[in-house]
Design a protein that fits this description.
Layout: E1 10-11, E2 21-22, E3 25-26, H1 37-44, E4 74-76, E5 82-83, H2 87-98, H3 108-138, H4 144-164, H5 171-192, H6 207-256, H7 261-289, H8 295-320, H9 326-342, H10 351-357, H11 362-372, H12 377-393, H13 407-416, H14 418-436, H15 439-450, H16 457-478, H17 484-506, H18 512-528, H19 533-541, H20 544-575, H21 582-597, H22 607-617, E6 622-624, H23 628-632, H24 635-654
Antiparallel strand pairs: 1-6, 2-3, 4-5, 4-6
């Protein structure tokens, strides 16, 4: 029979009716408190829920242990199924389920908050169980100080273990990240490569033909983005990456060996197709290879790879942007693609894709083993269970095998739901603001824009590229501490003021050097807000079932607006002259007004809010043996200690 005064198991149930009973035992449902275990203790000190007697025979337990060894932790779901995971493995399981399989710039804060939330959640469970065990032994509870000390110590131990994945990076994972990031590098390189050689590539071409060549990049982009998901599903993530590399190789060779402007236009379309392909595929591939608490970091690395690509194109323009050597400037793309193909044997397939096709895949298990640096089969199987469970919980909406939905139907459903429609419109407006603010006019045409403003226009373009890299790092720091809406307001407002200064400088009210400084500040303000935020908030504003459809709609509109700016700006610069940035200023003013009046704040979820989500999510789960300190100990050290104690006892008995 269960002893009503001997609680052993802990639950994460919300609410609770104090008059509710279970087998004659008064039962409050226990909710751990993330802010203070002392508060939690007050709520459960005199109430327990269907508690198991500590004196029950160990043989009746689901996980019978050797004498002297700590009991294994496990949990029992509402349907009666048991999960034999340590507290650390439980935490990793939650991270897999709650962090999307995508490498997204700026997601580090969410990853850290999730780790902190689960560490606090498990620390409360550990403290509750310790208090229950103490009551069983001595009929007294732990003091408030002892309870808080236990909770804090357990939370810190578990948090350290969860964050260890962020520094445990294996060589195969590094190689995969490096190769995938090179595709993002090529995307950035081909954004900037047409900037400097406008006057030396087939001299005498018309403004219209060069504008079409530049804008053809943005025409190919949406087609590549649409094909990326389909090929990733049918050919695998690795196969799709290799196809994309061949596309860059083909487009790069055609551009390098071009015989006229028509060849350049076709090559730019092909390279744009590969760039759109990479922009969709690389975040998915890295997100499926990386552990959850590294996906934000890898998303940041790919963002840096892109902006560094723009900067490198500016540097290479110094020796190669001439009538004799411009082909060398274009040859960087096929050379890089050829090197990626040379090292392709080291590129691993996504274990998630393999498990989606065959859950018993031995290849997936081998890849997981080398990616995570695991030694034992049971560790690999635990990781496999994380992948499978997270894939089932995260509806991929077309990005995973056997999970394709009709995106048109989903988009229609979003438009028909008032609340979701408002969010979708907000995201689409921000995407329009991101491109129509004129940022790519700078990256596409800054060299021609700076002519007559500074002595060496190419130097001005390179300075802008360097500022862009530095501003990306600043944006990473700000996104951890500032709200998304706040950053959009500062970004659009700052860019608007820079446009005003640029126009006044071109009209002669300020010195030309002020125009150069204004362009650099303009780029900096873009990178802290309108650059990353429109993509990040899509994942923060929508439910899982809408995220992919919203991303697809935003991507298509983004590429269309990119094309408009790339094609129209040469004509703006030719016909409006010093007023060429006025249309961009008008767009920025409208973006600022929209953000101030309509855009909701989506800074992310705090650890406390995530803690509440964890409690609700696991409200029907009962946890056993949540002793984090004992689970933290090395099992080999524990067995060695027990063996030495047994030898000592035998020596004493023999004497």
């Amino acid at each position: 029979m269960a002893d009503s005064g001997a609680p052993q198991e802990t639950t994460a149930l919300l609410g609770g009716d104090k008059n509710q009973t279970d087998d004659g035992v008064r039962g409050d449902k226990i909710r751990p408190n993330v802010s203070s275990s002392v508060t939690a203790r007050a709520s459960y000190r005199n109430s327990w829920h269907a508690l198991r007697d500590l004196d029950d025979d160990v043989a009746n337990e689901p996980n019978k242990e050797r004498p002297g060894m700590p009991a294994k932790s496990y949990s029992v779901n509402a349907d009666g199924t048991a999960s034999y995971l340590s507290p650390l493995e439980m935490g990793r399981h939650e991270l897999y389920e709650m962090v999307p399989f995508a490498a997204v710039f700026g997601m580090q804060k969410k990853e850290r908050s999730l780790s902190q939330a689960f560490a606090s959640f498990a620390g409360d469970l550990d403290a509750m169980e310790a208090d229950q065990l103490e009551f069983k032994k001595s009929r007294t509870h732990l003091s408030d100080a002892e309870l808080e000390k236990r909770r804090s110590h357990a939370s810190l131990l578990l948090l350290d273990e969860l964050e260890f994945d962020a520094v445990m990076v294996t060589s195969p994972l590094i190689i995969a990240v490096a190769m995938a990031s090179m595709l993002q590098f090529l995307l950035g390189y081909n954004i900037g490569v047409m900037n400097a050689p406008a006057s030396v590539v087939f001299p005498g071409h018309s403004t219209g033909s060069w504008a079409i060549a530049v804008a053809a990049f943005a025409v190919g982009g949406p087609f590549g983005a649409m094909m990326a998901g389909k090929l990733a599903d049918s050919r695998g993530r690795r196969g799709a990456l290799l196809i994309d590399t061949w596309i860059f190789l083909l487009g790069g060779l055609l551009q390098t060996l071009a015989i006229d402007m028509y060849s350049i236009i076709i090559a730019r379309f092909i390279i744009g197709f590969g760039s759109g392909f990479a922009s969709v595929l690389v975040p998915i591939y890295l997100g499926e290879l990386a552990p959850p608490n590294l996906r934000g970091m890898f998303g940041t690395l790919t963002q840096f790879a892109m902006v560094i690509g723009i900067l490198v194109s500016d540097f290479f323009a110094f020796p190669f942007a001439t009538e004799e050597k411009w082909r060398y400037l274009f040859s960087i793309t096929p050379i890089t693609a050829a090197l990626l193909l040379l090292f392709s044997p080291f590129l691993l397939e996504s274990p998630r894709w393999l498990l989606g096709r065959d859950r018993s895949s031995r290849k997936a298990r081998y890849i997981i083993k080398i990616l995570r640096g695991l030694r034992y089969d049971h560790e690999v199987e635990t990781e496999v269970s994380h992948f499978v469970s997270a894939s089932q919980n995260q509806h991929c909406d077309g990005s995973c095998e056997n999970d394709t939905v009709n995106s048109g139907v989903a988009f229609t459903e979003m438009l028909m739901t008032p609340k979701v429609r408002t969010l979708l419109i907000s995201c689409l407006i921000l995407q329009m603001g991101q491109q129509l603010c004129g940022i790519n006019a700078v990256f596409y045409y800054s060299t021609s824009f700076f002519e007559g403003i500074i002595d060496n226009p190419l130097l001005g373009t390179t300075i802008v590229g360097a500022v862009n890299v530095v501003a990306t790092y600043v944006a990473l720091l700000l996104m951890d501490s500032c709200g998304r809406r706040t950053l959009i307001l500062w970004s659009s407002g700052g860019m608007f003021m820079c446009c005003v200064v640029i126009v006044l400088s071109l009209l002669g009210y300020f010195q030309n050097i002020v125009a150069l400084l204004a362009v650099n500040v303009y780029v900096s303000f873009f990178e802290i807000g309108l650059g990353p935020i429109p993509w990040l908030i899509v994942a923060e504003m929508f439910d899982a079932k809408y995220v992919t459809t919203a991303m697809a709609a935003c991507s298509q509109l983004n590429w269309v607006c990119n094309f408009v700016v790339g094609f129209v700006f040469p004509y703006l610069n030719e016909y409006l002259g010093p007023y060429s940035f006025v249309p961009f200023a008008m767009v920025l003013a409208l973006t600022f007004i929209f953000a101030a009046l309509k855009l909701p704040e989506t800074q992310g979820t705090t650890p406390e809010e995530l803690m509440d989500q964890l409690v609700k999510k696991n409200s029907s789960v009962v946890y056993y043996n949540m002793n984090i300190q004992e689970a933290h100990n090395n099992p080999i050290d524990t067995e060695w200690k027990i063996a030495m104690e047994q030898l000592k006892e035998e020596d004493e008995e023999s004497q």
